[in-house]
Amino acid sequence: MLRGRSGHWLNLASFAALMAANLAAAALPFGLRRPQGFPHGLYVLLTPAGYTFTIWLLIYALLTGWVLYPLLQPNREPFSVTPMPVRFLLSCTLSIVWITLGERQPLLSILALFLLVFVAASMYSSTRNILRPSAAEIWFVRLPFSLYFGWICVTALASVDALLTHPSISATSISAASVSVPSHLGLTLLLLVVGILSACFVGFRWRDAIVPLTFAWGYGAIAAGPQLHQIVAIASSAGALALIVYALWIAFLRSHERD
Length: 259
Fold this sequence. Notes:
By secondary structure, the protein is an all-alpha fold. It has one domain. The chain has ten helices and no strands.
């Protein structure tokens, strides 16, 4: 297993490759698209506001600290958690696959995304095992991976909803008419509930208010976006508010237990 300086250098190389893939996806005509509807008239019910994905800028900025900070401390290991180079490499590789495939290969893309959720969960759990985190560990270890794990989970839920309306899926599996019936709306609302319960479970398990707040950001953006059904906006608004209140309770609980 790679440890020490070699692990940090591998993290740097992995992260640089991921950033290059993001830049290429933004500049070239391939990869992810975020449409509200497809040419055959089907609509993605979880349509977030345009500002939603700016959270990636914060995540990548904090992950830059995770990658670079140890390399700027040549005389000591600044983090008590291992560099996790293999898992970080795998997460970056899966992210690149997901970005590259986009909606051209929806099944493979969502498979890569769900594998990424499991890898991100593994890294997240490792960062939560730090008993007495330093300031650097809070900012460059715990915070980025809480945001990263939480947002990947939100993205996975939204991608499941989008998968139902993809032309290749609706053409081969279910008819266009069957996608637009109330069953799709019911599944969308179920996905919102699953997201809330998952965020609450993770937040309580690890006494982490950041994961519920990350879900709240996504739910608030869905409520602010153009929705085909008003009930989706209402449910998303209620979910965002509930998650914010829950996150405040988790923060209070953690502070009380620390005392």
